[in-house]
Each structure stands twice: as structure tokens, then as C-alpha cells.
Design brief:
Blueprint: H1 6-23, E1 36-40, H2 41-56, E2 71-73, H3 81-90, E3 94-98, E4 104-107, H4 116-125, E5 142-145, E6 160-163, H5 165-179
Parallel strand pairs: 1-3
Antiparallel strand pairs: 1-2, 3-4, 5-6
Helix pairs in contact: 2-3
């Protein structure tokens, strides 16, 4: 359609990509872990305590690592727990914290959407939409951040609750209204 400006055509292409990705429910063609460190929660907390103790001038050896621990890249290459903590603090690498059974607790800020075990955990823990007046079952809901991702909220089990599409959109609309944010997205009629 050459009657439209290049900017309008780029906008149409972007809108078409968004519509196409929505039709796949956010599922990519293949999994890419990128640079991910997997660290069990207890080991991560001990490493953090050791780092803080060293910064305070205390003896870090008073914090003992668990006998069995996991701290490695997703491909199995070993990493020190301190490297995992510093990498997660710096935010340049994804760190996956897991519980004692290996279930994900936290997957850094690089991951915006709740997927896999985190999504499943929220669905099981909360049977319906988080709005008390809504009967929609959580299996049909979006998992939303309590502390918004854009405000620094983590994508982890403690920060996720199911919201049906209507209540999630209403919440975002209220947020935009309260903060004075105006949507810049305008669809050009066909």
C-alpha cells in the first residue's frame, strides 16, 4: 500500500507482529536460556551474607554453605556462588534461583512474563482472578506483577497474581490515569 507513509507502514508492521505474537500466547519457537546461572536459594543467600560480611569487615566464614548446593551455568559449567550474586546485582546476566526441589523462585529482571513453573505456581496458589468480585478461574487469567515490572518489580512467585484480561487492563488504565501517562500507541485505520 504505497499511499501510506513509510512511518504508517512501519507502524502497521509492528502492530501485525504484536497481533501475531499474541496469537501464539507468547511461546517462542525454541527455548533460549542465553547466559543463565542456576543457583539454589540457600546457597544464594549464604553467598550474599558472605559478601555483605566481607564488606562490613566481618568474618565471612561464619556463614557456611549448604553441604549440597547447585551453582552453575544452565549448560552445567560450574560458577562460584559469589559470581552468581554479583552477576544478579549487576543485572547483566540472568540468575535463576531455585528451591530445594529445583523449582524456580526467581528469574532475574531479564524475564518479564510469568512462564512455566512460576505461572503454574500462581495458578495453583490462587484459584481465581485476584479481584475479589471476579469468578474467572486463574487458568484463564494473565499472571500480573503486584509491584509492576516497569517499576522494578521482580518476575518471581512472590510478586505474581492472576488477573483476568479485563481487570488487568483496568488496572493498567487506572495506573496510566493516576500517573498521567498517555498511551502513544495509535492504530491507523485500514
Amino acid at each position: 500500500d504505497l499511499e501510506r507513509t513509510p512511518g504508517q507502514r512501519r507502524h502497521d508492521a509492528l502492530a501485525a507482529m504484536a497481533d501475531a505474537s499474541r496469537s501464539h500466547d507468547g511461546v517462542a519457537a525454541e527455548s533460549s536460556l542465553g547466559t543463565t546461572i542456576v543457583c539454589d536459594h540457600a546457597t544464594y543467600l549464604v553467598a550474599l551474607a558472605r559478601i555483605l560480611a566481607a564488606l562490613r569487615g566481618d568474618d565471612p566464614d561464619r556463614y557456611r554453605y549448604p553441604f549440597e548446593r547447585r551453582c552453575e551455568f544452565a549448560d552445567g559449567t560450574p560458577v562460584t556462588p559469589e559470581q552468581a550474586v554479583w552477576a544478579s546485582i549487576a543485572g547483566w546476566i540472568a540468575v535463576l534461583a531455585v528451591d530445594e526441589r529445583g523449582h524456580p523462585l526467581n528469574y532475574s529482571r531479564r524475564r518479564r512474563f510469568f512462564t512455566g513453573a512460576q505461572r503454574d505456581a500462581a495458578i495453583v496458589a490462587f484459584p481465581t482472578c485476584d479481584d475479589p468480585t471476579c469468578p474467572i478461574r486463574s487458568v484463564h487469567c494473565q499472571i500480573d506483577h503486584l509491584l509492576e515490572w516497569i517499576d522494578g518489580g521482580p518476575t518471581d512467585a512472590a510478586n505474581g497474581r492472576p488477573l483476568c484480561r479485563g481487570h488487568n487492563l483496568w488496572k493498567e488504565h487506572q495506573r496510566a490515569r493516576n500517573t498521567g501517562i498517555r498511551s502513544r500507541r495509535r492504530r491507523t485505520p485500514p
